[in-house]
Amino acid sequence: MTVGLEFEGEFAHLTLNRPEVLNALSFSVLKEVSEALARVADSDARALVITGAGEKAFCAGADIAELMNRKLMDELDGAAMGQAVFDQIADLKIPSIAVIHGYAFGGGLELALSCTFRVATERARMGLPEVKLGLIPGYGGTQRLPRLVGEGRALDMIMSGRTVAAEEGLQTGLVNRIDSEGTPFEMGKRFLEPILKHSLCALYFAREAVQRGGRVSLADGLRLERDLSTLSYRTDDAAEGLDAFLSKRTPTFKDC
């Protein structure tokens, strides 16, 4: 299998397992990723950690050999497939994190951008180099990157095709943290563990308010926040959290 999936406690761990080709995303790998994500969505996992096998790369991007000599509709279908798979990650009800150790280029960075969070090791190198091939990103990079780092920084990366080191990624908001202690899976767990102390319902509502609100006007975003905030009050976890606060005890959330 070129995509591994394991469950450890409240974590699902998805691994891209083609280290001999820097974990490149062939279409068959994308299909396996999609199938693994469906299993994660149907599981009791409360978070997803995505890593790449080997020491050199998280994911170096698309399998270039597969992109040659295709018909127009095949190219369109390929982009639609990549976007659909990465939408599966973005649409998960649980938080996800990509641990970028080594290279994350093209489709590899676009995969990471679809996650809720990104952690990079000090030797991580990231970029969207498609312009160097006479192309542009097709798996969501032109849409997710500017929403994360701003239009100016996104255009700089996309139109130059340049490589970004971990420290610059941290400064621009491309990554949330730089970490080099332990395995990539341990880095992902360490980032998410404090977050997972909270109700998954509240985490989901908060993420929806921020991400969906960023795509609409301030007035519409405020209405969205109002509605999701009101909805959060209707959960059992909200009742537990409020009671625990008044009782001066630690809440026991059940994710509902």
Automatic annotation (TrEMBL):
* One GO biological process term: fatty acid beta-oxidation
Please list the GO terms describing molecular function.
lyase activity
Query: CDD domains given for it?
Result: crotonase-like (cd06558)
Coiled coil ranges: none
Keywords (alphabetical) are: Lyase
Similarity-based family: Belongs to the enoyl-CoA hydratase/isomerase family.
Q: What is the protein name given in its UniProt record?
A: Enoyl-CoA hydratase
- Organism per entry: Advenella kashmirensis W13003
What phylogenetic lineage does the species belong to?
Answer: Bacteria, Pseudomonadati, Pseudomonadota, Betaproteobacteria, Burkholderiales
